[in-house]
Specification:
Layout (H helix, E strand, L loop, with lengths): L3 E2 H12 L13 E4 L4 E2 L2 E6 L2 H9 L4 E6 L11 H12 L3 E4 L2 H5 L5 H8 L6 E6 L2 E12 H12 L4 E4 L4 E7 L8 H6 L4 E4 L6 H8 L2 E4 L2 H4 L2 H14 L3 E3 L7
Parallel strand pairs: 4-5, 4-13, 5-6, 10-11, 11-12
Antiparallel strand pairs: 1-3, 2-6, 7-8, 8-10, 9-12
């Protein structure tokens, strides 16, 4: 059975993702969140760290779980009830957890934004959308109808996006920031795009998009952020010759 050192994998991930250099929300706690006995034989990748996901990872016989949304967004103590059950499952099944939020969003090749852009056939990407001190998204210039872009996004995500047709029918300057960036339409517009692709946003953004003259595509927070963990797992699988599996647990949000 192929195996690799957890420490070696973590150092590789921290290096390529620039974990120590990329700013993020305090609760993100990027990097190794839970260690195991020190060896990895099977990798599982998923979007959200949760009790349901840990159960799926255990069933998949993984000993390393790669996640985009980690365990520590809010104060996570005391470890009682369901949190105790989650912790017990991790320890009893020797399951390590590695989390990467904005570092994975921002990565120019493996990141959610770069991968979604590639799935849409968008090229000549430039840095876009500053968050926590660095650009985390990408933008590009092209010409595509709003209707055709919606079809491409549906094919890439497997679900029809919600579209706010606030701008022109022909999209020429497209920006991508996966996840929950809908509350920052003014920032997107200020950086020169006429079309903004993200995961989700509040109700009031419909009127704001019209006022800004901005086309907005909400593809789903979960759906737009499956790309990065898959790409990272595939990269690790190739480098360390380990099997991996994607644990799909869609929220519909």
């Amino acid at each position: 059975m192929p195996k690799a050192s957890l420490d070696t994998i973590v150092k590789h991930c921290d290096r390529i993702l620039r974990t120590s250099e990329i700013g993020d929300y305090a609760g993100a706690v990027n990097g190794l969140q839970v260690e195991n006995s020190g060896t990895v034989t099977r990798i599982a990748a998923t979007v959200d760290a949760s009790l349901a996901i840990v159960k799926l990872a255990v069933a998949a016989k993984a000993d390393l779980l790669l996640v985009h949304h980690g365990l520590f967004w809010t104060p996570s103590h005391p470890w009682t009830g369901k949190k105790h059950e989650l912790l017990q499952l991790l320890i009893e099944n020797n399951l390590a957890v590695y989390s990467s939020h904005l570092p994975l969003d921002a990565h120019p090749k493996l990141g959610n934004n770069a991968q979604l852009a590639a799935a849409l056939g968008l090229r000549n990407l430039k840095p876009f959308f500053t968050s926590h001190g660095q650009p985390i998204g990408f933008k590009t210039q092209t010409k595509i109808s709003r209707a055709e872009l919606a079809k491409k996004l549906e094919r890439a995500l497997g679900a029809k996006p919600n579209v706010i047709p606030g701008g022109a029918e022909i999209c020429e300057r497209i920006g991508i920031v996966t996840g929950g960036a809908g509350g920052d339409l003014k920032l997107a517009a200020a950086e020169g795009v006429d079309t903004f692709i993200t995961g989700e946003g509040p109700h009031w953004t419909f009127a704001l998009a019209e006022e800004l003259g901005l086309n907005v595509f909400y593809g789903g927070h979960y759906a737009t952020e499956t790309f990065g963990v898959k790409a990272l797992a595939a990269d690790l699988s190739k480098k360390f010759r380990l099997p991996w599996v994607f644990l799909d647990h869609p929220t519909g949000l």
